[in-house]
Design goal:
By secondary structure, the chain is α/β, with parallel strands linked by helices. 20% of the residues lie in helices and 32% in strands. The chain folds into 3 domains: 98 residues, Ubiquitin-like (UB roll), CATH 3.10.20.30; 96 residues, Elongation Factor Tu (Ef-tu), domain 3 (Beta Barrel), CATH 2.40.30.10; 122 residues, Rossmann fold (3-Layer(aba) Sandwich), CATH 3.40.50.
């Protein structure tokens, strides 16, 4: 048996003991601590933490969940991490989130489907159970594809609507994708969907300094929920969002971003398109549009959500520029068939 100190971002430390060949995630769960977790087999990256000290074995994960560079820096997936000595692990979430068991199955009714562009659609579901999920803006759920035993992960793109108990999501239209095909060709208002969650350690923390948000494609979704919460509660610090897509057709929800900019005094945003054939005035990648003022000499909280190549590019940019923000939270996703 080895002891593992779990250091949470709110300054709380919890100690657990692992059994022989037991993963840190399983040992934590056995001790009543729920490290953010989803797949349990090294595929999603939800349980990514950082090992500050100690020896461990970690096999069976895929590169999209944990890159070679991250592994070299001793980032770990706790669902695959088996300690070989006493260890200290930093968990990128608050102790309150990890102690509280929030995951639930919610049956909801599909109330709205909107084709936002050729590449993106949104859908809304309603249920008197959604409030019981207690999700934080930025987290996601697994949505089961009707008529199958398969599910797909989607970030909430809204907070709970107080009037009709509804929540919304963005989905990228993937050719021959299971959920894409259902939503585009088969779904009808009134259909029943099953949601399981919430999951993830990517969520909005208390705003105590300037914030820089970097969104790629439908990685815009969690920021929409974050901005809705900020609009409701107010904010005294500047918040800037840079929204990047590949093609002009991928730009969506600009009207909502404009509305947030009007409603939130300190919020600004810009959008850029990577394609050289784009007619959009701002071209290139999100890193081309980060200005020194956005970084506030490092006294900034950075949130990043996008596909793996974008996340790796931003990580590389920050290392090349020697940028060390006060906090850096990111989530990478890959569109699923």
């Amino acid at each position: 048996m080895y002891k593992v100190a779990l250091n949470f971002e709110d300054g709380v430390t919890r100690f657990i003991s692992t059994l022989p060949m037991e993963t840190v995630a399983d040992a934590a769960y056995r001790s009543g601590l729920n490290i953010p977790l989803d797949c349990r087999d090294g595929a999603c990256g939800t349980c990514k933490c950082h090992c500050e000290s100690g020896q461990y074995e970690m096999d069976g994960y895929i590169d999209d969940a944990l890159s070679d560079q991250e592994a070299e820096q001793q980032f770990v997936l706790t669902c695959c991490m088996v300690p070989e000595s006493d260890c200290v692990v930093t968990v990128p979430a608050s102790s309150e989130v990890c102690v509280r068991s929030q995951q639930a199955d919610v049956h909801a009714q599909l109330t709205e489907i909107n084709r936002l562009s050729e590449s993106t659609l949104s859908f809304t579901v309603a249920s008197d159970q959604v409030r019981a999920m207690h999700f934080l803006p930025g987290q996601y759920v697994n949505v089961q594809v009707p008529g199958t035993d398969q599910s797909r992960a989607y970030s909430f793109s809204s907070m709970v609507n107080e009037t009709d108990e509804s929540v919304s999501f963005l989905i990228r239209v993937v050719p021959d994708g299971l959920m894409s095909t259902y939503m585009a060709d088969q779904a009808q208002v009134g259909d029943q969907l099953m949601l399981r969650g919430p999951f993830g350690s990517f969520y909005l923390r208390d705003v105590k300094r300037p914030v820089l948000m970097l969104a790629g494609g439908t990685g815009l979704a969690p920021f929409m929920a974050m901005l809705e919460k900020i609009q409701r509660e107010g904010c005294d610090y500047p918040i800037h969002l840079i929204y990047g897509v590949t093609h002009d057709v991928d730009l969506v929800e600009l009207g909502k971003l404009e509305a947030f900019a009007s409603a939130i005094d300190n919020f600004t945003f810009s959008a850029c398109v990577a394609s050289e054939e784009s007619s959009w005035p701002q071209k290139g990648y999100v890193t081309h549009h980060i200005e020194p003022a956005h970084l506030n000499d490092g006294d900034v909280d950075i949130y990043l959500c996008g596909p793996p190549p974008m996340v790796e590019a931003v990580n590389g940019y920050m290392q090349d520029k020697n940028i060390q923000p006060a906090s850096f939270h990111y989530e990478k996703f890959a569109a699923s068939k």
